[in-house]
Amino acid sequence: MTGQIVTANRLTDGAVVFRTGAGGWSTRVTDAALLDAGAAAAALEVAQADASRQIVVGPYLANAAAGPDGPVPVEFRERIRARGPTVGLPGAIQD
Amino acid sequence: MYRYDEFDRAFLAERTAQFRDQVARRLAGDLSEDEFKPLRLMNGLYLQLHAYMLRIAVPYGTLSSVQMRRLADVAERWDRGYGHFTTRQNIQLNWIRLEDAPDIMAALAEVEMHGIQTSGNCIRNVTADQYAGVAADEIEDPRIWAEILRQWSTNHPEFSFLPRKFKIAVTGAEFDRAAIRVHDIGLRMRRDPGGAAGFEVVVGGGLGRTPLVGRTIRDFLPKDDLLGYLEAVMRVYNALGRRDNLYKSRIKILVHDVGAEEMGRLVDAEFRAIQADGGVALDPDLVRRIQDHFAPPAYASAPADPDAVRALERADPAFARWVATNTAAHREPGHAIVNLSLKPHGRPPGDATAAEMRAVADMAERWSLGEIRVAHEQNLVLPHVRRADLPAVWRAAQEIGFATPNIGLLTDIIACPGLDYCALATARSIPVAERLADRFRDLDRLHAIGPFRINISGCINACGHHHVGHVGLLGVDKNGEEFYQITLGGNSDNDTAIGRIVGPAVSSAEVVDAIERLVETYVAIREEGETFLETCRRVGNGPFKESIYAAA
Q: Which residues contact B529 (CB under 8 A, 6 or more apart)?
């Protein structure tokens, strides 16, 4: 199934977060609730209320597909956002 | 180096306290994101793809070892242990927590650093030749004037809400290492026939969506007129710059629309009005104090050509190669300028870990009078090294992997953070830079190719200066896949030029092979002693276009 997930950045530390089925926020995209169009619009409204309550910043909808472990973002940018930089951190790279 | 006076300290303390209060109010819900965003941006705090990013100003690219050590401490304590030096000579920390930001600002303020004017529609951190004050081809240290401009522009009410951001670069040297012709204002020191030093004033350069080379509107401006004249430029821009269209709001569009001559006339008229009104007086005591801060250090006498260095150059070709590529002529006999390459093959261009920053601080203290420079090419510079110390500096640089002899060569790649970090990016930059560096890691081959600059930007905003790379790569998104548009023949020094687009963008999978074929074509067709840029200008894009698309 393809659908949409609600994502944002957490206010306190900027971390990328995803809205879960239970109405909370998780840093793991696999915890995100995969929603159809109607449910997504409603979830975004609730997420915007969370933005007004200093929980998250800038919530929006991203396209995602169902994967074996949970939703997988469709767009390349969203996959990088969900997973982190595709390059190693400098201290960790072996030359 | 410049040290803060009472006014600087009081201003920064006040701003730090204000920022602490603003963050507290945001976290408590007294400020909405819409209200808070311009306030955090005024302090260099962005919200990027994965976290908040703090851009810390390095005024005119000059850092003390104490400041470098503090950057390492901040990166380690409040970030993930590394930072990214940028084409604006700043440093960015990628993993900042909003909750920590006030403490970070306070820690930076203790060493006279901050993120003010690294964002927003104001006059940004003034950049300068990274060899300022030590270059053999320099008229005067341009940092004296960069510092005067910093003080003049800091919190200037008239220039805090410009149509768009505004970037000034300054050089005192004959050879332009500061890319002054691609800045909103570029200043180049020169002498009038009587021998007095002044400035050539260039306006309206810039990259981004509409790349334009700046135009000279004044061949020679006496130094004392600098602030009044620049104030006139800013006033003309503030009055006539477009605020109705974000993409047409930079001064380059104004200069392009009215023409350089008319721009010069408008600025002259405004300048005369400012002068008639008493002018922008420079307090001679203040200028003298600033000059004193940048007085050449008392160098101990040093042998011009130490035997030990000469012997090692003969005995160890790797050292000889490093000296030839990574050091530059110093104005003081017996000294050299040392470039530390932040482009070790296989690492993100411009990144340094906290441990590496500390090692560089140690090196600066031991061998460079405690001073470090940041180059807009995203390398670090030790400006005051005795030639006799070159072997020791080379070994210390090797220990941290900053001795790759590639300054000005193909793997000395400029790259923006790209889609790995940046919320504006459309494609990644760093992985392409890493793959190119890997392909050309053979040093004999690298040196046989000769001077070669590849610049990579992950979006049209051109933080990676792709238009002025000899080869420029612009990452674009084509139906969800990364492609790279290639430009050829760009240049950012004395004969600044915007590269020409060679043809359709190539896929990420193809781009490294395409560049390699292009390089091989150059090596095959170049005339004796001809650099890539010269060949490119002689033959045009044609032969390279053929090789780039050969396998497509």
A: none
Joined together, the tokens standing for residue A44 give: 């975004």
Cβ A89–B81 below 8 Å, yes or no? yes
Domain B134-293 has CATH 3.30.413.10: yes
Which residue reads 């830079």 in tokens? B433
Beta bridge partners of B213: none
- Give the nearest partner residue to B82 out of A9, A75, A89, using CB atoms: A89
| Domains B307-399 and B414-548 equal at CATH topology level | no
From B179, B135, B490, select the one nearest B329 (Cα to Cα): B135
Q: Which pTM value belongs to this model?
A: 0.97
**Tens of pLDDT, residues B456-490:** 999 999 999 999 999 999 999 999 999 999 999 99
Torsion angle in degrees (nearest 10) through CA of A58, A60, A65, A70: 40
Tens-digit pLDDT profile for residues B142-169 = 999 999 999 999 989 999 999 999 999 9
- The CA distance from B349 to B346, in Å, is 9
| Partners of B221 in the β-ladder | B199
CATH class of the region B307-399: alpha beta
How distant is the Cα of B28 from the closest Cα of chain A, in angstroms? 7
Residue B182 burial by CB count (10 A; 0-12/13-18/19+): exposed, middle or buried?
A: buried
User: Given this structure, which CATH class describes domain B6-109?
Assistant: alpha beta
The tokens for B471 are 């080869």
> Is A12 in contact with B98 (Cβ distance < 8 A)?
yes
Selecting from A14, A75, A89 the residue whose C-beta is nearest the C-beta of B52 gives: A14
Q: Is residue A56 part of a domain?
A: yes
Cα-based distances in Å from B139 to B109, B132, B136, B291 = 33, 10, 9, 14
Are the CB atoms for A47 and A19 separated by under 8 Å?
Answer: yes
Burial label for B151, CB within 10 Å (0-12, 13-18, 19+), is: middle
